[in-house]
Design brief:
- Two copies of one chain form a homodimer.
- The longest helix of chain A is centred in the N-terminal third of the chain and has 9 residues, at 55-63.
- By secondary structure, chain A is mainly β.
- Chain A has three helices and 15 strands.
- Chain A has helices at residues 55-63, 76-84, 153-156, and strands at residues 3-5, 15-16, 18-24, 27-33, 36-40, 45-51, 65-70, 98-99, 108-109, 114-125, 129-142, 146-147, 150-151, 160-162, 167-177.
- Helices cover 12% and strands 46% of the residues of chain A.
- The first copy, chain A, is globular and about 55 Å long.
- In chain A, strand 10 and strand 11 form a beta hairpin.
């Protein structure tokens, strides 16, 4: 064993690079987030960690709803733009074409192949960040990203973010079938 | 726009495939989890969603500590095995070589290139699952997975899980630099 300790850190791999959408001061705003995970199945919940000073957090607090948008690798530049600049200093309402589902204060990005509409269920103050937990009310998917009615990762071609190297990555090809490769023969 | 709705769902992409470790009835147990995300930076926190009936949850509740272990693509079969079989029916204490850091009830898997030791900070009951939020107390990394002292995603070769197709995937090559590709020229 040849391990070393690097102290408390956030180097989980892989991590998604998604866009959290909210209405702030009447405008759609999108922030880049890689600290996001599914939090429950029934009903479905999702968590996003947002630094307390973030502009987006104001809109989520005001309206109690938000969106999570899963971009493709092709949208890396737009995602990065949304991570580099705050909605305080840049109007990001036209980075993506915006549509709405059932929640009229949760803006969704057309160009992102998967979009979740979320209603805030709970939030935890964890120091530098608030962990916002939302119930997923609806999922929108590009029709050409479905296979037999289910979202297909290879068609979505989602964007991942790697801390350490601070780089974006796509997802590799199918390496093994889950609930299968580990079965004892 | 050619979108369709599929109802509330958990189809976030990409998602990690990690192992949550705990001591249950005196034995190291590892469960496969893809619903895991970083929850804060300072201090670092991580969240894992665990179905209420899970064997691992008993150990976490008893000791207040757990581990998160980031496997490589090469460990897909072992990870899948840990997802297929409960610690109730299979002794999983020998699937991996086990070591301990500062938390003596948080077993760590030697073969996984990144290991987090975590102390439970909070938990949320979200229906089918408990979202366990832990403070990351220490990070262990394989020395040959570091570049300039930081974990290197390409050396780690981490394992991702895709819902929908229910498949495991590696991470693709560097597609773009973050905090860079979105800069306005």
């Amino acid at each position: 064993m040849d391990k070393t300790t690097i102290g408390p850190s956030t180097h989980l791999f892989p991590k998604p690079a998604v866009l959290v959408g909210a209405m702030v001061a009447g405008k759609a705003n999108f922030m880049a987030v890689s600290w996001c995970g599914i939090a429950s199945q029934t009903p479905p919940h999702i968590s996003v960690a947002i630094r307390k000073i973030r502009h987006t957090l104001k809109g989520i607090a005001e309206h109690g709803v938000f969106s999570v948008n899963v971009p493709s690798l092709a949208q890396a530049a737009q995602v990065d733009y949304c991570g580099l600049y705050s909605g305080r200093e840049r109007d990001k309402s036209e980075v993506f074409a915006v549509f709405f589902g059932g929640l009229d204060q949760a803006p969704l990005a057309v160009e992102c192949p998967v979009n979740f509409e979320c209603r805030v269920k709970d939030s935890l103050d964890l120091g530098s960040h608030i962990l916002v937990v939302g119930e997923i009310i609806q999922t929108h998917v590009d029709q050409d990203c479905l296979t037999e009615g289910k979202p297909d990762v290879m068609k979505i071609d989602p964007l991942g973010y790697a801390s350490g190297s601070m780089t974006y990555h796509g997802v590799g090809p199918v390496a093994a079938k889950a609930y299968s490769v580990g079965k004892e023969s």
